[in-house]
Design goal:
6-stranded mixed sheet, about 400 residues, alpha+beta
Length: about 400
């Protein structure tokens, strides 16, 4: 049996934490949650918020991150905090945090899994971890790879990169009542019923193939041995779009980089143009990869989110379990591109879940590592994690 309380508030700091704790207590009939997920706007004093909600509802473990848009099945907005509280007799939860992410992902992965009970135990059939990272520290894809190796592929992962309301200056992850930068947190979920994970993005190649010929961290320096910006300028001309090197974001929100993989295209959001004509992206792009400039249609995001949700629900239902709650993440770039139409995507998720409640946030990248899913660290990708009863 799993009880769920989902709450949101526009209040910040201690007042926000007290409001959320009150909603959680009422939702759980005054019981304390075993696990609490918190996603909070950068307008908060994070530690005041976390201390207040922790004092008020006494969760067994608390994890989460700063965000760039917050929502539940009942409300959505920016400058808010959304939470999911879980109390379960069928799932077990553990939390872990690892600092110095930019220095050594292998060490960070090892520190996270030292907090996992399921690594050395066969008591539970299904092992899942929700992972939230300071994406501005970089190397999130590498961390996902290191976690997969460190757990010998026995865990599935979902999660995302912390946000800061679109400022791209400093993001935080939460563990207990502390907020960390240059760090990652994980919530281990052990169960004998499957946790469903679905991921889709709805973008299609719109350019000829482009060879990534030089990179520097998350900057694509050259495509086809020419400054990367030239490929975008040529694409803009060919598709009758406006592209301005000094203000490229309006173009980039509708024309992103797709890195070809065996599973499809892994997306990278361009953020700006470097002085030498490189394209600065939200995550690394490997040298030698084949890339395309991608495009999408007006309903594609909602369709992709609905399909990801149906995938996750089907995984839970495959053994006769009942979906009880869901975590939904999508990229801040998706929200910025869609504007008010982002509500259509939330509506599509709600329709696909039926009566199942959800909470989530707009992130700086999305994490997926699950069987049959589009694995790794992504941008502009809808990720849905459905928890069983």
């Amino acid at each position: 049996m799993t009880d769920v309380a989902i709450a949101a508030t526009a209040a910040t700091g201690r007042a926000g934490g007290e409001d959320l704790a009150d909603q959680i207590r009422r939702g759980l009939n005054d019981g304390a949650p075993d696990a609490l997920l918190v996603f909070a706007s950068a307008q908060n004093d994070y530690e005041a918020l976390l201390q207040a909600v922790s004092d008020g509802c006494r969760p067994g473990v608390l994890v989460g991150c700063s965000s760039a848009g917050e929502f539940t099945h009942e409300r959505a907005g920016t400058g808010h905090t959304s939470v999911m509280a879980l109390r379960s007799s069928t799932m077990r939860f553990h939390a872990a945090v690892a600092s110095d992410l930019s220095a050594d992902r292998g060490k960070a992965a090892q520190k996270l899994i030292r907090g996992f009970e399921g690594v050395g135990s066969d008591e539970f059939r299904y092992r899942t971890a929700l992972v939230f990272v300071d994406a501005l520290a970089g190397f999130a894809e590498d961390l996902v790879d290191k976690l997969t190796l460190a757990t010998a592929g026995r865990y599935q992962f979902a999660g995302g990169g912390a946000g800061d309301d679109g400022a791209f200056k400093q993001t935080h992850v939460f563990c207990g009542t502390r907020a960390y930068t240059n760090a990652a947190v994980a919530l281990e979920i052990l169960s004998n019923k499957p946790v469903g994970i679905g991921a889709r993005h709805g973008w299609l190649p719109a350019s000829d193939p482009l060879r990534v010929t030089e990179t520097a961290d998350a900057c694509v320096v050259s495509l086809n041995v020419a400054p990367a910006v030239e490929a975008f300028e040529e694409h803009a001309d060919a598709t009758h779009q406006q592209f301005d090197r000094s203000d490229p974001l309006p173009f980039f929100l509708h024309n992103i980089v797709g890195v070809k993989t065996s599973d499809g295209h892994k997306l990278r959001v361009p953020l700006g143009v470097a002085d030498a004509g490189g394209i600065m992206c939200a995550a690394e792009v490997p040298v030698g990869a084949t890339a395309h400039i991608m495009s999408t249609g007006p309903s594609a995001a909602a369709d992709a989110a609905a399909e990801a949700t149906r995938d996750a629900v089907a995984q839970v239902a495959s053994t006769g379990a009942t979906p009880r709650a869901a975590l939904f993440l999508d990229c801040v770039a998706t929200r910025l591109r869609l504007g008010q139409a982002f509500a259509n995507e939330l509506g599509a998720v709600s329709d696909a879940l039926g009566s199942v409640p959800f909470a989530g946030f707009n992130s700086y990248g999305q994490i997926v590592r699950a069987e049959g899913q589009f694995s790794g660290f992504h941008n502009c990708t809808a990720v849905v994690c459905v928890l069983p009863d």
